[in-house]
Specification:
Elements: H1 27-42, E1 56-61, H2 67-78, E2 82-87, H3 99-109, E3 112-116, H4 120-129, E4 134-136, H5 144-158, E5 165-169, H6 175-186, E6 190-194, H7 203-213, E7 219-223, H8 226-230, E8 235-238, H9 250-257, H10 264-267, E9 275-278, H11 290-293, H12 300-319
Parallel strand pairs: 1-2, 1-3, 3-4, 5-6, 5-8, 6-7, 8-9
Helix pairs in contact: 1-12, 2-12, 3-4, 5-6, 5-12, 6-7
The structure holds phosphoric acid mono(formamide)ester (CP) and norvaline.
Phosphoric acid mono(formamide)ester (CP) binds next to helix 2.
C-alpha cells in the first residue's frame, strides 16, 4: 500500500459496483476516478503490485481487441492480480448458456469480469446476476473505459476539461461517441457532433446529454455541417465509420460519412491549439487523413497509453475500498 496519509475519498466509494456506462458514475465519482488514475500514472513501479494482490479478473471478449485486452492485462499484472482471457466462441453472451447462469458461475471463481460484446442488453443481464463487479470493455452502445482515458488525456493536455469545446465528427451514434459525450458533458465541456442526419445521435440521447451536463455547465450541440461542428474546437475526435458488428452498413456509411473525414482542411476550422483524438484502430484515408493522425496535433497514442492508467484506477476503485490515496 502507498505510504501516504490514509484519507479515503468519499467520492470514490465504488467498491462492488458495475461499470457499464459512463453515467453509472456521478460527476464527483468520475472526477475521483480521474484523480486516482493520475495518482497511479505518476507513481508506476513496485508499490502498485500489492494493490490487487491475489485477485483474479476474467476478460471475456466476443470481438477483437488490441488496446483494451492488453491494457487490462498489463494493468492487472502491475497491480499484482491475474487476468484470465477467453475470446470468440469460447465466450459469447447467451450462446452456450444464459447470461445469468454464466454470471453466477463466474462470480464463484473470479473477483471481477471484463466483457466485450455486441449485446448491451445481454451485458446488463449478466451484470444484474453477477455478484462481482462487471466492466464493459465495449458494447454496441458504449465504450466507457475508452471515455475515461479520453477525458484523462484532455485534462492532461488542457489542464481542465470544464469549458472545453470537443467536436466529434462522423458516426455520432456509435459507442465511442456516446461515452465520450457523456464524460465530456459531465465534466463541463461542450460536445459538438458533426454528423449527417442518418448518423446523428437520437433526440432522446441529446436531451439526456443536456440533462447530464447541466450541473457542471456541460452542453451538447449537433450540426450536419462538419466545419460548423469543428469551428473553434479545442479537440476534434473521430472514430471508424463502421463499427465492429455493423459491417453490413459499410458501403452506406462510407458514402454518407466521406464529407466528415478529418483532414487538414477540416482541422483548420478548429482552434490553432486543437488536439486530434481517435480511439484507434484508425483507417488513414477514410475517417482521418495520415497528415492529421500522424501530425503534431494528434494525441492518439497518449489516449492509448491512458487506457491502462484509467483502467488501473477503475479496477482499484471497484475492487477495493480505495484507502490510503490522497485523492
Ligand atoms: N480503442 C480500443 O478499444 O481498441 P481495441 O479495440 O484494440 O481494444
Ligand atoms: N466504434 C468502434 C470502436 C473500436 C474501438 C467499434 O465499435 O468497432
Amino acid at each position: 500500500m502507498y505510504a501516504v496519509a490514509p484519507a479515503p475519498s468519499p467520492a470514490l466509494a465504488l467498491a462492488g459496483r458495475h461499470f457499464l456506462k459512463v453515467d453509472d458514475l456521478c460527476a464527483p465519482e468520475l472526477r475521483g476516478l480521474l484523480r486516482l488514475a493520475r495518482f497511479l500514472k505518476e507513481r508506476p513501479g513496485r508499490e502498485q503490485s500489492t494493490l490487487l494482490k491475489g485477485r483474479t479478473v476474467a476478460l471475456l471478449f466476443e470481438k477483437p481487441s488490441l488496446r483494451t485486452r492488453v491494457s487490462f492485462e498489463v494493468a492487472l499484472t502491475h497491480l499484482g492480480a491475474k487476468a484470465l482471457f477467453a475470446q470468440g466462441s469460447e465466450f459469447a453472451i447467451g450462446s452456450r448458456e444464459t447470461p445469468e447462469d454464466a454470471a453466477r458461475v463466474l462470480s464463484r471463481y473470479v473477483d471481477a469480469v471484463v466483457i466485450r460484446t455486441h449485446d448491451h442488453a445481454g451485458l446488463e443481464r449478466f451484470a444484474r446476476a453477477a455478484a462481482v463487479p462487471v466492466i464493459n470493455a465495449l458494447s454496441a452502445e458504449s465504450h466507457p473505459c475508452q471515455a475515461i482515458a479520453d477525458v484523462l488525456t484532455l485534462g492532461e493536455r488542457f489542464g481542465e476539461v470544464a469549458g472545453l469545446r470537443v467536436a466529434y465528427v462522423g458516426d455520432g451514434r456509435n459507442n465511442v461517441a456516446a461515452s465520450l459525450a457523456q464524460a465530456a458533458v459531465m465534466l463541463g465541456a461542450t460536445i459538438c457532433f458533426g454528423s449527417p442526419p442518418t448518423h446523428r445521435p437520437s433526440e432522446t440521447f441529446l436531451a439526456q446529454l443536456g440533462r447530464l451536463g447541466k450541473p457542471a455547465g456541460g452542453s451538447v450541440r449537433a450540426f450536419s455541417n462538419p466545419a460548423r461542428a469543428v469551428r473553434g474546437a479545442d479537440a476534434v475526435y473521430t472514430d471508424v465509420w463502421t463499427s465492429m458488428g455493423e459491417e453490413r452498413y459499410r458501403e452506406r456509411n462510407d458514402a454518407m460519412l466521406r464529407p466528415y473525414a478529418v483532414t487538414e482542411e477540416l482541422m483548420s476550422y478548429a482552434a490553432p491549439h486543437a488536439a486530434f483524438m481517435h480511439c484507434l484502430p484508425a483507417h488513414r484515408g477514410e475517417e482521418v487523413s495520415a497528415e492529421v493522425i500522424d501530425g503534431p496535433q494528434s494525441v492518439v497514442f497518449d489516449q492509448a497509453e491512458n487506457r491502462m492508467h484509467a483502467q488501473k484506477a477503475l479496477l482499484v476503485a471497484l475492487l477495493t475500498e480505495c484507502k490510503g490515496f490522497p485523492i
